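Complex 294.
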Amino acid sequence: MTAEMSPTLPVTVHLLGTGGPRVDPQRAGPATLVSVGDEHLLFDAGRGVAVQMARAGIPMASLRDMFVTHHHFDHIGDLYDVMLSSWFDGRRHPLTIHGPPDTKRLVIALQTQIYDKDIEWRGDGEPVFGGWSPALGHDVSTGLVMETPAWRVIADNVVHGHGLAFSPAFLKRWICYGYRVETQGRVVAISGDTVDCAGLRRLAQGADVLVQCCYLAEAEITNEHFRRLAQYTLACGDTVGKIAAECGVKTLVLTHQRPRRDDAMLRALEAEVRRDFDGELVLASDLDTVSVTG
Ligand SMILES: [Zn+2]
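Predicted structure with zinc ion bound:
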């Protein structure tokens, strides 16, 4: 069986957390989950991800593979919770956490330097947990990350602040990915945090669903800070529709929203994106789901 030969498994995208780094009472931190049948692939572990998985009815113990886009705290802050709560929930197999270089170091540090006492306490003192079921950090390169009979995941470099005034030494360590899930002839692309770039366009090419970071409406880009953010750091309403249209995306899902007091700027954002893109458009709220029909 190949990735193209089993067209019967349902594919669903769960927008677990649609916010960004700023605390937002309306939105959890970045986390997207792609379900292929009863397999669940988690992308990023932002603030509240474990609670959001429970609300979505996704059994944490079923997680086997998760994927980290980059090492900003809003994307990895609750990695510990995914690792430990999935164990609580009955995970007896290793959890593999794929991500850019240094992911393995972070995953080892959480287990051996931050939560080592907690893990030993529960593992040795509460036999019901059956001993620690480890998480394995896996530093991956661009290209094919993982392939099973039902799905494969591809990573590509995206551009998230690389044009800012960082030292060459830092830039060597600042590697950011987006991902592309291919399953049964269907494609879900996860932009990660990025501005328009070649890697994003390769990932999004012909996607049935593109889960795209979009921090601001164009109407909100009113000062130098936001202009720099839209240029160097996060795609905004002025570009996401063009990217989706030019890549032939069927359904564009906008996530990684800034906190807002009301929906006025979301409506402005919708109108801006509509100028460039006439496919399905979802301005995602937490726990929205998108069925990927191909
Ligand atoms: Zn982010």
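Confidence is low (pLDDT under 50) at residues 1-6.
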